[in-house]
């Protein structure tokens, strides 16, 4: 089991985002590339003409050297054949990269090989229903990389729709606690739908989107983590979005259910508490943003 990933300090809004590549960004109709920076993942950016050798390029000028160790693409429409690659450079033309482009697939193989009979097994190994609320992909680097320019290239050569879109891109230096979350962690499914019965005994349900809440009790944390990470994150309040992966080393069919685009649902009641000698506790609850 790998220690949790918390992308608390999102850098995507630092500097400027532009679109390049051979696919075309749709800037009208509320589908601008700048929607990738808004908190609402349903405010999508769309790119047309993708397919074959055509690709989307997203490029950030971060204005100064910044550390990046994790990148997440949220609410995307890539096919199971789609891939993306991430690179960083200190030069505006992206030459001499400090992070040689790393390629990854958009979808995890969420169906274990041999788990279904012949004819029922998906040949791409992907069951999209394993992603509870929306498609998310993330890339975790071995160590933070410092660079000024970051780019993401999206390739989807067999895309039948001819366009690719996404709702949010986040990246930055992810925090991974040296002491992982404790027992008592959990995921709750929240269903705000309303159920009522009419005078004629007919059942009526006002169905609303379900979302999840994630509780991560962090116990026996160092003072440096408590004051330097958790304290400062709480100061940003419940309006700050965060990307969380419970166990990045989990099998794909588990990992797909353990990725969260979320925010603090409320401020932790006890804040950051000194619960034992030189050790601190922080018990946040995150609400999924859908």
Radius of gyration: 21 Å
- Cα(first) to Cα(last) distance is 27 Å
Bin the strand percentage. Answer: 35-45%
Tell me the CATH superfamily of the largest domain: Galactose-binding domain-like
Helix tally equals 2
The global form is globular
In the CATH hierarchy, the architecture of the largest domain is Sandwich
CATH class of the largest domain, named Mainly Beta
The count of domains is 2
Order of helices and strands: EEEEEEEEEEEEEEEHEHEEEE
Write down how many β-strands occur, each being a DSSP E stretch of 2 or more residues.
20
For this entry, what is the oligomeric state of its chains?
single chain
Helix content: under 10%
Write the layout of secondary structure elements.
Elements: E1 5-7, E2 16-21, E3 24-25, E4 45-48, E5 55-74, E6 83-89, E7 99-105, E8 136-155, E9 163-166, E10 168-172, E11 186-190, E12 194-197, E13 203-206, E14 211-215, E15 218-221, H1 223-235, E16 241-245, H2 252-255, E17 259-264, E18 272-276, E19 279-282, E20 285-288
Antiparallel strand pairs: 1-16, 2-5, 3-4, 4-9, 5-8, 5-10, 6-7, 6-8, 11-14, 12-13, 14-20, 15-19, 16-17, 17-20, 18-19
Q: Would you write up a description of this structure?
A:
There is one protein chain. With 290 residues, the chain is mostly beta strands. It has 2 domains: 163 residues, Galactose-binding domain-like (Jelly Rolls, Sandwich); 103 residues, no CATH class. Helix content is 6%, strand content 43%. It has 2 helices and 20 strands. Strands 1-16-17-20-14-11 form a 6-stranded antiparallel sheet, with no helix packed on it. Strands 2, 5, 6, 7, 8 and 10 form a 6-stranded antiparallel sheet that branches. The longest helix is centred in the last third of the chain and has 13 residues. The chain is globular. The two termini are 27 Å apart. The model has no long low-confidence stretch (mean pLDDT 92).
